[in-house]
Amino acid sequence: xxxxxxxxxxxxxxxxxxxxxxxxxxxxxxxxxxxxxxxxxxxxxxxxxxxxxxxxxxxxxxxxxxxxxxxxxxxxxxxxxxxxxxxxxxxxxxxxxxxxxxxxxxxxxxxxxxxxxxxxxxxxxxxxxxxxxxxxxxxxxxxxxxxxxxxxxxxxxxxxxxxxxxxxxxxxxxxxxxxxxxxxxxxxxxxxxxxxxxxxxxxxxxxxxxxxxxxxxxxxxxxxxxxxxxxxxxxxxxxxxxxxxxxxxxxxxxxxx
Length: 257
Ligand code: ADP
Ligand code: MG
Description:
By secondary structure, the protein is an alpha/beta fold.
């Protein structure tokens, strides 16, 4: 079961009509200065299962604040957020931990790998918390190896982060984000620290995952990176100022592999 996501038969997006993400009138207000700062200003948005969405906007426009709320890493000051139809604001501590650990994968600009652990150990880390499933150490390792193979790192299992290139480190982070088979992947500037060749490799992996049915929301300020998504949302001053199809669409959509 664990290897399903990483093998080629496509996991078709389900016909389920409940959006994977629905936010209504989200606001995040910081009262640090004389004037309250609206990092998010009444954002409403639906994202359907299977979409690949890019969020763009200048620095300070609220992109990371939105991603942190979507990843349940931060609470909104006002508004509502439903993940797969369930209101996140009403979840208890355990449900929130499960959401962050299992239902959502998060990728950051700075990879956030543990430096003393090997690639394999980094990827195995989130599975540890799945106590309810009582998976064996062997199964955990198998699933983690499959995840690393799916991002082309089957030959780097025992390397530590400082023995890997930036692009390879980000691929380890993607494997770690996917190992619990989340339905939603959030990526905040995943190519922000990478050269253009590594960026292109990361985008190819994200597109492959999206074709396999993973919903992706990705922040970027590079328009060529955003063109890999099917939909581009622009933010300014905490608000959504435009939302539409990408110009070239998902440019590899027609390719079989
Ligand atoms: P982006 O990711 O688009 O660059 P952010 O979401 O990080 O923007 O920030 C949006 C706005 O909120 C910015 O003006 C930023 O300075 C402010 N902000 C973010 N986090 C905090 C915080 N913890 N306290 C006060 N202001 C913050
Ligand atoms: Mg940011």
